[in-house]
Design brief:
The protein is built from 12 helices and 7 strands. It is α/β, with parallel strands linked by helices. It has 2 domains: about 180 residues, 3-Layer(aba) Sandwich (Rossmann fold); about 60 residues, no CATH class. A 7-stranded mixed sheet has the order 1-3-2-4-5-6-7, sandwiched between helices. The longest helix has 15 residues.
Amino acid sequence: MISADGTRIAYSTTGHGPGVIVVPGALSVASGYGRFAEALGSGFTVHTIERRGRGESGPQGADYSVADEVADVRALQDKTGAGLIVGHSYGGFVALEAARGNAAVRKLALYEPGISVGGSMPSGWMSAYEEYLEQGKPFDAFVEFVRALGPDNVRKMPRWMFRRMMPMFMKAPEKELVVGQLTENLREHREIVRLDGTLANYAEISAKVLLMDGVKDRRAWTDGDHAQLAAVLADCERQSIPGLDHFGIDKGAPEQVAGLVGEFFSRS
């Protein structure tokens, strides 16, 4: 598929039924949502977009903005006729932007969308992160990112201890996947920070919205953001899922989340 600016955007399709577009989060690829897509595909035709800068899709480019991703999602809508969207983390941010003023989106399911309200998204990590990338130290850059945005127990860990422990639980191919997307990750989080203060724009969304949060490792600042988001949306219901964390949709319990999403999409 070719997007509005001529960039090639890849996607994978599975299942049968009404069309759904899945928008992955930061530091992830379409294949990482395979279990979720397969489970949801029992009742829907699921198209998982390979976002810019990943796999067979074209690069983000130096002038990247979330508007490029919105154009990609809308191009996939035009191609497939899908009126349902699922977004996770940064992909939830993209999905929200794509649904603004877009009557073709009938329902929107969001799993912990990445937004910033009143400066809630930390940004102090970005300078050191960028410096480490320029120095050819991607692992140190990743440590800065996770210590800023990770769960409380990780954020409180001394940097030296975190640096020593990381290789123990991040193995190939996940390590290669993460390292290969660190530049894209910085651009994406800068977009979230740039659009801080634009929460009211989501009142333009006419779609019914399911806003999901994992209860495990919940953070106070994201709770507040999502409560304010729910208040702005015209038609929003919330679902808190015990036992799941930020990665419940792709790594934790994809089939469970797919069941909730499928039930929501099936309702009139």
